Amino acid sequence: MKNFFLISVLLLGLSIYAGIRFNDSNGRLLRVGTECDYAPHNWQEDHPTDSNVPIVNNEGFYAEGYDIQIAKIVAKDVGAKLEVKKIAWDDLIPALNRREIDVIFSGMLDSHARRQVIAFSDIYEVNKIEYGVLVRKDGPFAKAKKMTDFQGARFVGQEDTNLDRGIYQLPGAVRLPAVKTTQEMFDKLLNNEVDGIIIGSEKIDLSVKANPELVGINFPPERTFIFDYTGICAGIRKSDTQLLKEINNALSTLSHRDRQKIMDRTIARDWNNI
Questions:
Q1: Same domain, yes or no, for 61 and 138?
Q2: What digits encode the pLDDT tens for the residues 19-38?
Q3: Sign of torsion, CA 206 252 256 79?
Q4: pLDDT at position 273
């Protein structure tokens, strides 16, 4: 009995130190939280494939996307079994700090405000995220070229993201109440309830290909949106310093070419989710 108690205490200590739980039958377990609503970074599918991962809290659905592929590589590198949980965007950081997950892989930018409450890994995105605008091809702003061309345009964004905060940088644009998901943003634009949405530039061409009724507008680097962030990173509890080191070590093995290949393969898998 004493030996059993001692072993239990040691395992608990190790799991707290590493920031990863231990599963009695499967060893180390890396619990990843993601939104499953921002392709090509993350989305959900209703059938298994050779690349997606079951969502443990959404039976019959599977997580896919660039974030998921990076998480798989990290889990393998640290010697852990990957477990993916679907969590609403505004609950990802609270869920992390409640210890319901070990790390966030969800296209999250390391803003100054977020760095006050969690730690971030090194950047794992392919290229630095820039932002542009999507409007309807048959709408009054289809010919817009500059950020000053959206006087009176109705915009909606996702809560607590640059997709919402950026609206304030469009002179004269009308900001409508933010929504919970990017899918809601797209729905409102496609249903003509708003005139435009802000989206990551890497997603503009994909969105137009999937929705030909839309047109994308990118701005020159010297006259575009300005935000406080370094890039897309994994989010980790500040106390999990060992896990942070392990994640960064795993990410360091991926060259820019490797990351581009992962993104290209991800995009090729399912245009309907982009």
A1: no
A2: 555 444 458 999 999 999 98
A3: negative
A4: 52
